[in-house]
Every structure is written in C-alpha cells, then in structure tokens.
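Posting here for the record, re: magnesium ion.
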Amino acid sequence: MRALLLVIPALFVVGSLLRLSSEPRQDPPVGYADTPHLPGSPWRVHDGTRPQPPVVTPGSGGTAPSDAIVLFDGRDLSRWKSGDGPARWKVAEGAMEVNGTGSIRTQQEFGDLQLHLEWAAPAQVESSSQGRGNSGVFLMGRYEVQILDSYENRTYADGSAAALYAQYPPDVNACRAPGEWQSYDIFFQAPKFDGDTLVSPARVTVVHNGVLVHHAREFLGATTHRNVAAYAPHAPTGPIELQDHGNPVRFRNVWARRL
Ligand code: MG
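Prediction output follows.
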C-alpha cells in the first residue's frame, strides 16, 4: 500500500513532464507589429517575429567560439598539409613551429572568413629587417598578411608585421617583444570574378593584439615580391597558408569561422 502511495504521485509527475515537453514552448511576445518596415527589408523596426541570432558560446583565454573550425588546438597538424603530403612542422608545448619543412596550408578551403591565430617570433633575436621572425598568413593561399618581428626592427614599411605584404603597411606598429605571444584577428572578404573580370577585390580588416591596423583594406592582387600585385581569376575558395620563411616562428590557437 505504501509503495502504491509513492508510485501514483510519481506517475503523475512523469505524466505532466511528458505533457510539458510535447507542447511547443510559448515565449512571451516581444517587439512591435505596428512599426514601419526597414528599407528593403521584410522586417519592421523592433519586429518581434524577426529570427533570433543563433547562440554561440564565445571562446575565452585561448579557446575557440563554439561555432569555429578549430585548425590548431595545440596537439596535432591533422588539419594541415604541406605539398602533397602531411604537414611536418614541430609540435611542442601546445604550439606548432616552423622548422624548414616548407609552408603548410589547411586541408579545408575558405572564402569569406574570420580567422584568429596567435604567433610568437623567436625570443632569441638573430638577424634584422626581413630576417627576423618572418612568416606570414596567406588567405586563399594568395593574399599575405605579413608576420614579422617588428619590435624595434626597422624594415621596409610594407613588409612589417601585419602589413599586406608589398602593398600596405599597417596603420600602426602594435608588435610585442620577441618571444611574446601575439594575436591576429582577420576578417577577410574573398575577391569576386565574372569570368576573367574582377568584380570586387579582396578586402581585409586586421586587428593586431587588439589594435585595428587595417579596416576594409582592398588587396591590389595576389601577394608578390618586388613587384606590383595584380588579380588573376581563381576559385571562390582557397586554403589558409602559413609561411615557412626559415625562422622558427610558433603558432597556437588557430581557428576560423566561415562568414
Ligand atoms: Mg612573410
């Protein structure tokens, strides 16, 4: 009898839970239905029926946001390749390091993207100008945001850290000291072609260590050396490439979000 007394309320609780979960959740109304439409938009100002932005859990202290493609998490190079084979950079202490085995590029290809990466130039300063902590991030395998130890290191301006190499210096030099971790947050819009004709150039916004250094800057074309860049039509996506320029630059916490 006592068992029955316990079972009956339990069934009641389970029944009401099932009923609750099968009913669509009724959110209280928000917004307005009598406001004017936004220009060229199906939505009204403060439209309560406008879709909610998807929820993303932001990263913090070295972790990627929940909707990012993690390209390097400190453990392995499985998302990278070099030439036709696997990437062979050194992986140690949560970082990957340039080691003379050649540039590496992502297995996946990207068009418009947000890219976060952290890099560190060698703590030991051994050279000068372009020989100091040189690497680079090539968007679509073509458009380079320069990596260089530009901390008290004079070089040609369009080759300094965060320069669009051979095209535009960064607005300011936000470089940290050799050996210190630095961050790039890159927002890239791929160029668009109609057949052989350039319709819109590649555009990039670059934040170096939290400092805006390029805002919607247009690339003149694919990166060159000692020459003026020009556009040649290419596929709408391409890999992210990290340059082996012979200096043991380290990378960590690399992630991308398609836009
Ligand atoms: Mg470079």
